[in-house]
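Q: Please design a sequence for this.
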C-alpha cells in the first residue's frame, strides 16, 4: 500500500509492478546461478525488466491524465505514457545505460596476461 501511494497508483497496479519486478529479479538470479548468462549481459536485462515492470503505472497515469511524470516534473499532457515509442524508450534507455556501465567496468578491470617470471 505504501508503494502504491508513493507512485500514485491503485493498490492492484502497485501489486502488479512489484510482482513483475520480483519476477524479473528471480529470473535473472536463476540465470546467474545456473551460469546461463554472465552478469554483464544480465545487468542490462535486469534494468530493462525493472522499467518494463512500470508499464501498468504508465498505463494508469495515461488513462487518468495525471500531469506529473515519474520524476515529479509537471507536464501538460500525459497521453504519451501509453504510446509504444515511449514504452520502448522507457525500456531501452536503462538497458543502454546498464550496458555502458558493464562495458566500462570490463574495460577498467581487464587484466593483461603477464608472462610468469622465474
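A: Design:
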Amino acid at each position: 500500500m505504501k508503494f502504491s501511494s508513493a507512485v500514485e497508483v491503485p493498490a492492484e497496479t502497485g501489486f502488479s509492478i512489484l510482482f513483475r519486478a520480483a519476477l524479473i529479479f528471480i529470473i535473472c538470479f536463476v540465470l546467474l546461478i545456473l551460469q546461463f548468462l554472465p552478469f554483464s549481459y544480465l545487468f542490462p536485462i535486469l534494468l530493462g525488466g525493472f522499467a518494463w515492470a512500470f508499464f501498468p503505472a504508465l498505463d494508469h497515469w495515461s488513462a487518468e491524465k495525471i500531469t506529473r511524470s515519474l520524476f515529479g516534473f509537471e507536464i501538460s499532457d500525459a497521453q504519451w505514457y501509453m504510446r509504444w515509442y515511449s514504452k520502448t524508450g522507457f525500456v531501452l534507455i536503462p538497458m543502454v545505460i546498464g550496458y555502458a556501465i558493464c562495458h566500462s567496468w570490463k574495460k577498467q578491470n581487464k587484466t593483461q596476461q603477464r608472462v610468469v617470471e622465474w
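Q: Thanks. Anything notable?
A: The chain is about 65% helix and 0% strand. The helical segments are 2-6, 11-33, 39-53, 55-64, 84-108.
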